[in-house]
Amino acid sequence: MKIYYGKSKWEMWGSTLQAFLARAKSDGFDAVEVFVPALAEPPGDVVRMVSDHGMKFIAQIVTDGADADGHIESLKWRFDLAMRCEPLFVNSHTGRDHFSFADNMRIFEAALRLAEEAGVLVTHETHRGRPLFAAHETRRYLDALPGLCLNADFSHWFCVHESDLSDQPDNIAAAIARVRYIHARVGFEEGPQVADPLAPEWAVTVAKFMDLWRRILEARRADGTEFLVVTPEFGPQPYMPCELHTQRPLADAWTVNVQFLKTLREQLHP
């Protein structure tokens, strides 16, 4: 199985795609993840620039609206835009945590139909604010939708459950079986992101995440998956903790992601 390491455009939302691609390539990343509706560049230029840099492209989309119908409509046009950018796969923030199970099922089913028709992988984020915000809730959708694939961002689950997830082995095993993408951010029981995962005080927590990520890689190797993308995704302010009063971030998010990329390469490869 091929492992690619991705870089989110999160810290460079206001910059051109060209500048972002050049910086991500220079810092050793293999792929980029970009929220496609925010791109100033047309899809044809996106395809060309990504190819020119020799990188893989992950199209990020979100669904939104007042109800399930609105989310399905936003999904359709954003998915179409994503496909015009010729992505390796699509990563989606899908549905809402306060919608009913039936309504969120309709949204996920619409996404599964689009993925099947286009012949492309679509992953859905285990994110706060979305139906997959918690391990036990995610299990309900996994049981109901055999084709549902996950983007594992377990930092949110550490925070939501206020635990290291060791008390939910069956739910975590069910999730790992469906993971096709990893957002490698480290959260903790009281928040979705530590400032710097390489600080010694977070060593025990980082080790727990590394174990979860290794389990995912082992599962995908075992089932013959062709590739898996791992994206260190430590975000800028307000995800990045800041000093009181000055609001200076405790660390530079891009630097943290580059440094953690090196750690991931060292620890996740057999």
Task: Give me some keywords for this one.
270 residues, alpha/beta, TIM Barrel, 8-stranded parallel barrel, 9 helices, 16% strand
Which helices and strands appear, and what pairs or packs with what?
Elements: E1 2-8, H1 17-26, E2 31-35, H2 43-52, E3 56-62, H3 68-84, E4 89-93, H4 101-118, E5 122-125, H5 135-144, E6 149-152, H6 154-161, H7 169-176, E7 179-183, H8 203-222, E8 227-231, H9 253-268
Helix pairs in contact: 3-4, 5-7
Give a structural overview:
The chain has 270 residues and is α/β, with parallel strands linked by helices. The chain has one domain: TIM Barrel. 43% of the residues lie in helices and 16% in strands. The protein has an eight-stranded parallel β-barrel, surrounded by five helices. Helix 5 (135-144) links the parallel strand 5 and strand 6. Helix 3 (68-84) runs parallel beside helix 4 (101-118). The mean pLDDT is 97.
In short:
With 270 residues, this protein is of the alpha/beta class. Helix content is 43%, strand content 16%.
Order of helices and strands: EHEHEHEHEHEHHEHEH
Which range does the strand content fall in?
Answer: 15-25%
CATH homologous superfamily designation: Divalent-metal-dependent TIM barrel enzymes
Just give the CATH class.
Alpha Beta
Q: What distance lies between the first and last C-alpha atoms, to the nearest angstrom? A: 12 Å
Structural class: alpha/beta
Roughly what is the average pLDDT, rounded to an integer? 97
CATH topology: TIM Barrel
Radius of gyration: 18 Å
Low-confidence stretches: none
- Give the overall shape, derived from the CA principal axes: globular
Trace the largest sheet across and list its strands.
1-2-3-4-5-6-7-8
**What is the domain total for the residues?**
1
The portion of residues assigned to helices is 40-55%
